[in-house]
Amino acid sequence: MSKGMAGQRRGEWLELMPGKLNPPEHGGRYEAALVWLERELGCPAKLLRSLDAEGGIKLAGDRLRVRLFPPKISQYEPVEQPVRILYEDDFCLVVHKSAGIKVHPDGESREPSLANFVSGIYSLRDEPVAPAHIHRLDEYTTGPVLYAKNIFAQLKLDAAMARKEIERVYVALVEGVVNPALIRINEPIGRDRHHPSRRRVSKAGKEAVTRVEVLETFPKASLVRLRLETGRTHQIRVHMSHAGHPLIGDALYGGSTKLLPHQALHGESLAFPHPLTGETVEVPDSWPEEWDKVRAWLHS
Q1: Ranges for the Pseudouridine synthase RsuA/RluA-like domain (predicted)?
Q2: The domain spanning residue 251 has which CATH number?
Q3: Is 138 a catalytic residue?
Q4: What is the pLDDT of residues 52-76, one digit of tens each?
């Protein structure tokens, strides 16, 4: 896919200027446009076949139009709740998730999820858009969550996620003074047979790698920055607990809840290749305000 791919949205269609199209040996300019969409736009083959079959590709002169923005209604009931939007364009949405909110309904809680709030954004705007989340955060972890606003973006971002091209950087307040020599934790993670919601380091588990950077130390705690090379459930919480530094507030993995009622874990930033242009989009998210009081207490 070409970096900096230019395109203009016109309603449900994306208008592109592919330049000269060289027809393949068997076919005309339309067939050449299909080849160009796959090679240059990076359009997934399955989506390309669907667009072709449904008349979603039009070629007129030097203009190529692709129906990438068909109307879609969310499966989640809209709840109009203020949501902090960190980034948005025609393809992607990044919103801040607060502590105590699930990314999507789990069938157990009746409380609305972030999915309901995101659905509410477009209901309020009267826009037929149904974003799909690309990754998750634990219920009590704060930070940015990336959404795809159409199937093209979803397929491209899912593929980027599988190739580990989406970087998520976290910060955490952990118990104890972390040795600066702890820069990488490479320990497989599996289920805990004795606790259905817990995970643990296990030789039979899946590969899990977390990079660690010590940012600040306190008399009995540390502030660390963490980068994920893999995305296992509770990975940071399990790895830091295994290293002897459970997250402050993380009772599930041995942390004290004296200062916080939930784990002190926040997504500091998110970086991803834009589905259309391929250019890296970096989205920061400011630290939770409640951490200021916790850090002040840790200094005392």
Answers
A1: 93-242
A2: 3.30.2350.10
A3: yes
A4: 999 999 998 889 999 999 999 999 9
